[in-house]
Amino acid sequence: xxxxxxxxxxxKGKKISGIIDAESLISxxxxxxxxxxxxxxxxxxxxxxxxxKKNNNMFNxxxxxxxxxxxxxxxxxxxxxxxxxxxxxxxxVEAIATLVTQTRSKALKKILSKIKGxxxxxxxxxxxxxxxxxxxxxxxxxxxxxxxxxxxxxxVLERLADITEKREETKxxxxxxxxxxxxxxxxGCLVLIFLITYIIPGIVSIFSDMNQTLPAPTRFLIxxxxxxxxxxxGVIFIPVIGLISIHLFRRTDKGAYIFDKILFFxxxxxxxxxxxxxxxxxxxxxxxxxxxxxxxxxxxxxKGITGNKIIIKAIDNASQVVEQGGELGKALEASNAxxxxxxxxxxxxxxxxxxxxxxxxxxNLFEKEVEASVTSMTAxxxxxIILVMGILVGFIVLSICLPIFGMNxxxx
Length: 412
Fold this sequence. Notes:
Layout (H helix, E strand, L loop, with lengths): L2 E7 L5 E7 L3 H10 L3 E7 L5 H6 L1 H11 L4 H16 L4 H11 L3 H15 L4 H5 L8 H13 L2 H52 L11 H15 L1 H20 L1 H13 L3 H22 L4 H8 L6 H15 L4 H8 L4 H13 L2 H57 L1
Antiparallel strand pairs: 1-2, 1-3
Helix pairs in contact: 4-5, 4-9, 5-6, 8-9, 9-10, 9-13, 9-18, 10-18, 11-12, 12-13, 13-14, 13-18, 14-15, 15-16, 16-17, 17-18
């Protein structure tokens, strides 16, 4: 059913705006008038002229990709709001309609309106979400399906909001911790490039008429400056091409597996990735099991949240063992992909019959460890960057000063 955006006047003459689904423009106007609103303008959200489609197809695709992308934080927010409304006694359709009027994102408004219309046509909430797999993950949809079948939709929505918010919180902390060191590194590189390409050539030109052999550091600095001035395009484009090639290679199954395997062998980084994957896996698996999703189904869903091919392969192998009646803890232990403590806590959960609680504790423990590891790594990274920058600047100063010292000796 088409979705329309409208501007109208209410009984007090105040201008209002909203979104409504209807079969046609006339039907949309009728629905608006039934609300005692006087429509000023009604536009179909999907509407676009043939000329615009022909001339701006590439621009529109880029615009959707860059500016209409729905963030995980927005999904977490509407999930939390929806859980609150349903807990307060709102019917599902009415709760979604309330969210449509409160949501600022036009893309999300359109999706919510489509979902509302789909539910009104007789589909379940989970079936309606399936129309948007790029917005709502498989975990999200399966938990909604479990909540609908068990009659605990508001509880499931609360847990989904918790999972999404916790994941975004961890992501933000990691990004914030690395923001300053990365900023320092970028600025330092730009300053060095500026010194070598613009400042150094002017200073070392005074050495060109000297009849003595220049020191090795000075010759190296002059050669580097000449190279950067002549092949600056290579310095810019070769790293960009390299990064694009690595990105494309990583998008393949084999490339992603090789890349993740290499990261696992890097000191500190490998352990950090293991802990992060274990935390994500444990939290999602706990939520799925709590909502009545079978173990094998939960494992197949939870493995996708880890984002690591090594972990995914380990979970696939463990799923086969569990399917044959084996224990999850022992199966994961054989892969050597999960942290030792996570394996032990899963084993305790299996033996005690409190798997969900142990998985929650595992997730909380490793999330804290990830935050602590990131903090300690960035604390070491900042002085390391300063040290490297000091050595490079010191080398430049030394390369300039050595010929000057030589000239002074000749004069004396």
